[in-house]
Structure formats: structure tokens, C-alpha cells
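Need C-alpha cells for this chain, all 447 residues.
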Amino acid sequence: MFDKVLIANRGEIALRIHRACREMGIATVAVHSSADADAMHVRLADESVCIGPPPSSQSYLNMAAILTTATMTGVNAIHPGVGFLSENARFAEMVEEHGLVFIGPEPKHLALMGDKVQAKEAAIDLGLPVVPGSKGAVESLEEARSVAGDIGYPVLIKAAAGGGGRGMKVARSEDELEDAYRMARNEAKAAFGNSEVYLEKYLTRPRHIEVQILADGQGNAIHLGERDCSLQRRHQKVLEEAPSPGLNTEARERIGEIARQAMLKLGYRSAGTLEFLYEDGEFYFIEMNTRLQVEHPITEMITGVDLVREQIRIAAGHPMTLRQEDISFNGHAIECRINAEHPETFVPSPGQVIDYHPPGGMGVRVDSALYGGYRVPPHYDSLIAKLVVHGQTRNECLMRLRRCLEEMVIDGIETTLPLHRRLVENPTFINGSYAIHWLEEWMAAHR
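Here are the C-alpha cells for all 447 residues:
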């Protein structure tokens, strides 16, 4: 096992990784920007090193600074967390070239799944169901028209090299295709430095279902059930739950086994998530996230499996001791993403937290790096807390979540807590009948 791990991230996920390491007897090194000098994980780590000024490009994305720090502090491995360099194949290669262990997948799998066109081709080879669409990147407007004509409108034009909703445009008819195609290419070029796009059939009322997997690259793989991530705004997840209220036992067992077999065939190593759209009883693969997910706590709550601990063990070369028959699913869990944003306009709201009181009690977990007096910097993602609640039934979970949202206090800055309080009172959410576009439609109708 590792003696010392460098955490190449910030915020609540850096604190989450630190806690797992501490419980495993592993020392930690926190790297941070000058804006994060007072961050909770920096305070708690065994060692901390400032690697640059606030801009991510000069700190958390600065590979040379991170690797220099890793060498100076004598770590064995680097955990990249989520975002930043967590899915960067070149960074993973550089970590290995420095004689260190990258706590994540092999670079070849990061590269494969990081290119959405290649990932879709790989998914087909692995036996995953895919959304009808172009066989690869669409190089011209004429080709786009041909593909759209074959699969039928509406179509979704997507950046090959990115995610997070950027470089994605919908064309509902041939009249809209030209503008959507050009806008998607321009946006993809600006966001990712790569203007390649591809086309897919646009599903009108799907659910967003993702399957959590663990594999050790030594012939062992398991799935840990699904999460429903359909509550989204501008392709950004707002609330997730596990299991999905929209799947029956047969559907969840089917997609879980399909995902598990695909990872065995791929020879995958580490934690990963396969994401699908689900409509009319059918699953369609859309992408794979080759890292820990922000919403991993709800899977941990219903399975009792510590995903970060398993990541670290696998990276250290230990074969998985868990088998599929060891995994049992207990109850229901929901995660609310609390952002430092205005709850209606979603304008970021950095600033000083005057008062902070997280809820507690049975089945309650709050993943956050906040504390009273902490100043939320304006330079990074606005996620500041994850409220995670578990119950033996979905109704019990909903009642507990409602109580926790009433108790939670974050004063001094605007947050999205009021949005979540409204959401849990909504009949469509309560009965679980929502789909991927529902939240935006509901918000637009109640402005």
C-alpha cells in the first residue's frame, strides 16, 4: 500500500480523498492555489504546497508544478479527484514516467473514452447499446444533412472532445441544421480546441441513467447499481438519486450486467461510470466518465462500498476482493448539489460564509469543505456542498431530505438551497415521473 498520496484537486472532493487516505493510514500532500491557502483539506493534510496563483491554468492544471511537488515531497501516488486533470491521458502518462502511480485508469483508456467519437465506436465493439447517429466525426454540413436525413429529426450535434453541455446544439428540422452545426463547431473549438462534432438522434423524453463500476484490470469487475441524474439544468446535474425511480428490477439488472461485461472485455482498471439515456424501455450509451463522479456518495450510501478506498487499493495493485454476489442494495439515497449561486438567476455568488450549519441525524451525510468564516473564491466551480440523505424507502428518504433542507444554513452568500427546497415539494419530483428536460421546463414556467 502507498505511504503518501498527493491530492491534485480542491474543495470537497480533495477533503473526501484526504479522509479516505487518513482512514487507510496513508499520509497526504495537498497542493493548492494561493486562493485556497485557507481551504479545509489544506489545513488537514500532513503537508501542503502552494503551486501557483488562482487561475486553474497556473495551479490545478499546471502539470509541471504538480509533478515537481510530488517529487519533492516523496509521494508514491497522485489522486486527481474529479475535473481538472482527472481524465487527462497525458498527465496520467507523465505521472507514470516519473515513477509514480496515477490513481485512476490506464492512460489508454482515458484517451479512448475522452474522445466521444472513439468512445462510441468502442462502445459498439464492447456490446453497449448506442444512440443512432454518425459513425464518427461529421466533417461537413453536407455530411451532417445526410446523416440527419437517415436517422430522422430532431438531431443532437455534439463536440467530439468535450462535455459539460458545451458544444451541444439541437436541430429540430433541416432548416435549423446549418446554424446548429456551425454553432456547435465554433463552441467546441472555443471550449476544447477541437472543432470536431458528431450527430446523434435526439431523444425527446429520456432519463439520464448512469451505472457505477469498479474493475481491477486483473479479470475482476463489478457494478454497483445505477444512479438517476435526470434533474439537470443546461446539461449540469442538480440532484441525483439511487436507485432510479424510473427503472424496474429487470431493467436495472440488465444494464448493470451489460456494463460489467463491457468493462471486463475492455480490461478496465479503477472506478468508472457508464452513462446512458433511457427511453421507452431501451438504454443508449452516451459516454463514459473514467474517474470518480461528484455523485458517488449516493452509491456508497446504498451499497456500503467506499469507492475512494477501492480506487486506492486497485491503483496499489491489489486485486478486488468484492464480487458481484457480494453487492447488495439497501434503501434509497438522494444527493442535492448545493452551489454558491443565486437560486433563480444562477449567477455565481462567491464571498465569505458568515454562518454554516450542516444538518445531521440518521442517514445524513454532508460532503463539504465549508466552515464559518471561509471565503468562497470566485475562480472555480461553484459547488460548495453535497447534501446526501439515505432512507429505507424512497418516501422515507424524501421526508428526511425535506427536513435536512429546512435545517441547513449557509449565510453570507447566495446558494441554491431555496431551489432544492422548492424541488422536494413538487409533485412530479415526489412521484419520480420526471425526465431529462423536466427541470428546465418547470423552472421556465415558474419564473
